[in-house]
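Worked example (supplementary).
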Amino acid sequence: MGRKKRFEFLEHTADAYVAAYGKDLAEAFESAAVAMFDVMTNVAKVNPAVEDRVEVAAEDEYALLYSWLEALLVKSEVNRMLFSKFKILGLDKTSEGFRLQARIWGEKFDPSKHLQKVGVKAVTYHRMEIVKDPDRVTLKFILDI
Amino acid sequence: MGEEEGRHPTEKVPLEKVNDYAWRIPQYRQAMRVPGMVFSDKDLLSKMQSDRTLQQCANVACLPGIYKYSITLPDGHEGYGFPIGGVAATDYNEGVISPGGVGYDINCGVRLLTTNLSEKDIRPKLVQLTNVIFDNVPSGLGSRRKDFKVTVHDLDRLVTEGVRNVIDQGLGWPEDAEHCEELGCMKNANPDKVSATAKNRGLTQIGTLGSGNHFLEIQKVDKICDSKAAKTFGIDHEGQVTVMIHCGSRGFGHQVCSDYLRVMERAVQRYKIVLPDRELACAPGKSQEAEDYYQAMACAVNYAFVNRQTIMHWVRQSFQQVFKEDAERFGLKLVYDVAHNIAKIEEHKVDGGQRKKVWVHRKGATRAFPAGNPELPPDYSGAGQPVLIPGSMGTSSWLLVGTEKAMEVSFGSTAHGAGRMMSRSAAKRNYRGGDIKKALEQRGIYVRAASAIVLAEEADQAYKNVDVVVDVSDKVGIATKVARFVPIAVVKG
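After joint prediction of all chains, the assembly is encoded as:
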């Protein structure tokens, strides 16, 4: 990326309020995932060594963002993994709503190597926004800490 | 999302002063079925006016079947749909139950242990003891005990049976269960109503402290305000050492909440419930969705009780390890374990003085039942229920006692904590974990934390003063002061 920041943290009293950017919805979803793991650790130090796949479906784009982040959170907790690289392969409209397929990369959490920041309890719909400008998509959402 | 109705942060919520510690939100919107009631002093109220706390209080007043008023407590702040630091009671038959009224961290709560040691007895070994506790109690990202692994089958039993299950395995003393809200087990728990995802998250995190605002502190009694009640609860002198454990139901409870928010979104459509905010998603009390949620929530409640029970056991073991004597020698008795995020079926007096069966939602609120209530353990029946209100890291925490007044005005509830006033990012900009640790150590508070960043985020300056929150509770009379504690050692995730 380099040219523009992929995400930033907005002011919120109790939790992590994230703004994530991309040239399209798929890229913004990837940025959102990086942001979520940056709440937990320094993502730059997470080696994208192990590949996994994620597939989620939801009734609308808001629910899709929620489901995408939740699926990553669950994979991280259950497999004790941290992820740092995300590639959305497809983000399609279906008859029931939307479907997303992605490849994700990361490695096992290692407290001696990975900086511990704060754990994410849950993704929320609170203040969630998806703003589509002609050349940029902005996502805003709050992670419950 | 939830903004379509125009509930912008700038919306001015009208307030009518009842007295110095109570403010009424009139039914200024047509959809409000009851008024709002805010228990707060002027300063705390102005904090609430800086975010959406009061709008959310008014939104909650729109819930079908809500009685009397939607309550915001002195520690109230903006939450998910419902404010955090709030109580709402809805009719058991005609009302609704909402996962947002409980929160993501179901049965996030606190337990307090007393010891028969004084500060001077423990000082020489404080660092060693804290280090041993830090090693014995998993905290921070991804950590767990290698000797405490459960299968899905074990987990199903554990969330059905609550603390008894682990006490029977030797993780605790038989009398511990009596000193837990609900005796450490909500009876309606049904693991069939919990998703495989929630169980998978639960398996890896049982018996762990977590991170964020959760903590384990070795404290000392710093002030006794009600010596009679204090004595009943095992506190008899200033300087007496106590231990406080604050954590919740981890990924298990978060997933139960998340799963049922979805169920409730569909229920809102199905039962044509009109809500001012999508995040209030709920289902009629008598529906299948409500029953399913209540049974799944009970599993998460029990998970959290067990979580705190196992952590307490490892704290007792740590004392044993360091002082080379049986834990019983040091007292280490459980005073009480209370939930801060929970929904319950209770009977309360509503408008017109009638007694009604209600769903009480306590989100960032502590049950505060008075003396003589049948829910209390026999040894506390004459005093009332212990209420535990932790402060932020490095500040004071409180023991209060429930009152009759709470039954009259707040559905038997009071506040639960300090509540943040500075964002995590601002705290990180202003403080460094290392400096926070040093500053605490200069005040004689030893700190072990899995994350230096969490230390900065949890700097006590980022929180409201818990003493002020407790003052309001005491002045309103919905739980009165018994004793104050200050930490001498802190373990953080």
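Two points are worth noting when inspecting this output. Chain B touches chain A through 48 residues (CB under 8 Å). Residues 1-7 of chain B have pLDDT under 50 and may be disordered.
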